[in-house]
């Protein structure tokens, strides 16, 4: 029997994924116009994470100092106004858990483990623990159509996400769209006007991105609209990011949560709660205000079903590559659902 979030939800229309429908793709068979979860962050006790890594036969390795994540974390520490500990006494530590790849030639896919940051100091203080007791677990790149994700990697991530003791810290939900116009500071005023009242505290323009960092929303803490084509072109080979993707844009929403609250029982509890549905309706409203209405939630539903029940990754297409067009097609043709969404 299908497990639904919305048996008692006061909306009457349920839009199930259309079975067998074609998926909108680029020339390189990348999924376009899809909504999906791109990044998830959890907070957990570091020793618990280490123990779980050992049981899974994995290993934790230092993140190379050249990685851009080091600079991001260092900037966060420098921006800490509370100055709880001097940087020389408690420097941030970044480690990785390498995950299985589709092909050895692919770039490394990994889980990031971060320690000794102001956010984690606050959590430790709240629980009256040593300041290095907790870590941030980061799963990034889960909605990157131009990168190949293995089903084995997703199964490992699923095991971490299901842990109730691993508190949900943030969730990025991204909507891919096409927009022939460049994203520059010249669009800042119109973007603010269109997204009112969510944008009443202002819009920031930086490079080819527009940011809203304060929305007065219980969970949505940030909205970014940026040029996804330019970003991927800087990170991948030109033969992968071809000219037909030149209009590729992304609207991304960050949802943030208080890890010290007792009702925060982790990722799975949140997505099976009406709070998640309410947040998705607000995201849908924001996307509409931004002029983005032509997108599908098929990949999001596929992600959620697979993370809850790994059997959705057991077909041949998913085994070869979790996030391929063929894998999503196979999922859409299946009538079985563990999880449905009213979107």
Subunit organisation of the chains: single chain
Low-confidence stretches: 1-22
SSE pattern, N- to C-terminal: EHEHEEHEHEHEEEHEHHHHH
In percent, how helical is the residue content?
A: 25-40%
The overall number of domains is 1
Radius of gyration: 20 Å
The shape, in one word, is: globular
Would you give an account of this structure?
The structure is a single chain. This protein is of the alpha+beta class. It has one domain. Helix content is 30%, strand content 20%. It is built from eleven helices and ten strands. Strands 2-3-4-5-1-6-10-9-8-7 form a ten-stranded antiparallel sheet. Strand 8 and strand 9 (220-227) form a beta hairpin. It is globular and about 50 Å long. It starts with 34 loop residues before the first strand and ends in a 10-residue tail after the last helix. Residues 1-22 have low confidence and may be disordered.
Structure described in brief:
It is built from eleven helices and ten strands. It is an alpha+beta fold and 343 residues long. It has a ten-stranded antiparallel β-sheet with strand order 2-3-4-5-1-6-10-9-8-7.
Question: What order do the helices and strands come in, and which of them pair?
Answer:
Layout: E1 35-45, H1 46-55, E2 60-62, H2 68-78, E3 93-99, E4 109-115, H3 118-126, E5 134-139, H4 151-161, E6 167-178, H5 188-194, E7 204-206, E8 209-212, E9 220-227, H6 228-235, E10 248-256, H7 267-271, H8 274-289, H9 298-308, H10 316-320, H11 325-333
Antiparallel strand pairs: 1-5, 1-6, 2-3, 3-4, 4-5, 6-10, 7-8, 8-9, 9-10
């Amino acid at each position: 029997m299908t497990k639904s979030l919305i048996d008692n939800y006061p909306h009457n229309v349920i839009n199930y994924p259309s079975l067998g429908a074609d998926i909108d793709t680029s020339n390189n068979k990348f999924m376009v116009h899809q909504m999906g979860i791109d990044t998830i962050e959890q907070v957990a006790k570091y020793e618990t994470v280490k123990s779980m890594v050992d049981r899974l036969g994995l290993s934790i390795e230092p993140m190379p100092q050249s990685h851009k994540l080091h600079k991001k974390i260092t900037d966060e520490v420098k921006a800490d106004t509370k100055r709880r500990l001097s940087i020389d006494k408690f420097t941030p530590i970044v480690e990785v858990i390498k995950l299985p790849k589709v092909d050895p030639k692919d770039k490394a896919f990994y889980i990031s483990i971060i320690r000794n940051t102001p956010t984690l100091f606050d959590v430790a203080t709240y629980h009256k623990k040593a300041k290095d007791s907790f870590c941030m677990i980061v799963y990034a790149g889960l909605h990157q159509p131009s990168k190949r994700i293995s089903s084995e990697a997703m199964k490992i991530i699923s095991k971490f996400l299901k842990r109730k003791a691993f508190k949900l810290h943030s969730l990025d939900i991204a909507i891919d769209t096409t927009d022939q116009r460049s994203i520059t500071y010249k669009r800042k005023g119109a973007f603010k006007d269109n997204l009112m009242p969510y944008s009443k505290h202002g819009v920031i323009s930086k490079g080819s991105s527009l940011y809203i960092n304060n929305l007065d929303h219980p969970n949505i803490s940030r909205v970014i609209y940026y040029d996804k084509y330019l970003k991927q072109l800087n990170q991948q080979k030109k033969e992968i990011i071809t000219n037909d993707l030149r209009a590729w844009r992304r609207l991304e929403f960050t949802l943030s949560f208080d890890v010290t609250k007792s009702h925060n029982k982790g990722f799975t509890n949140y997505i099976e709660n009406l709070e998640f549905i309410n947040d998705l309706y607000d995201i849908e409203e924001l996307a509409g205000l931004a002029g983005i209405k032509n997108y599908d939630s098929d990949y999001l539903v596929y992600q959620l079903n697979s993370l809850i029940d790994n059997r959705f990754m057991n077909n041949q297409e998913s085994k070869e590559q979790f996030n391929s067009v063929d894998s999503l097609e196979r999922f859409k043709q299946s009538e079985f659902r563990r999880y449905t969404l009213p979107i």
